[in-house]
Amino acid sequence: MTATQGPSAGDGVTGTPDTSSTADTSAPGRDTVAEVVRQWRAVHPDLDTGPMEVIGRINRCAALFQQAEDAPLRRAGLTRPEFDLLGALRRTGHELTPSELARETFSSGAAVTKRLKQLTERGLVERRGDTRDRRVAHVRLTDAGRELVDGILPSQLAYENAVLSGLGPAELGDLAGLLGGLLAQLEGRLRAVRV
After folding, report:
1. E strands, 27-174, in order
2. 16-49 pLDDT tens trace
3. Domain ranges across the chain
4. CATH number attached to the domain at 77-151
């Protein structure tokens, strides 16, 4: 389907894209992706830019959220990936191996190893060897690590709430549901590819 054929993000009647509102991205309610899509439509009017409108906005929002939500973490001297490791240990409530932490945080094993080394040096996690297999390590939060996570989380969530404050509860619920459905679909495809 092309951007001008069949139903797509458009005027809701004919499926024809409504580009009249995307020319000035500095106006309230307009975004940078709309301008990119408008430009592509001018160059290739026969292409369906629907996926670009969705994926482009997801990627742009993710980048902006990452910048915004990392502010409280930076004040605590943490990076987002370090906080994700500490958070995984805190929310699961038990020791995890580095490979389990990699799965929990969607990170590579090498990245987890590097971060664990830094967090261990800072006294936020401790590692112990497995009694049956010396190649396996178990990681747990120290008291200082637990206190840090518990101290940061309320301000982190308040900050994220402020970032999303432009959306009402119903809009947030709808968005969470749509993104959850998309994520489940994508994760299912990824699992199928790995099998």
Report:
1. 125-129, 137-141
2. 334 333 344 444 457 899 999 999 999 999 999 9
3. 1-61, 77-151, 164-195
4. 1.10.10.10
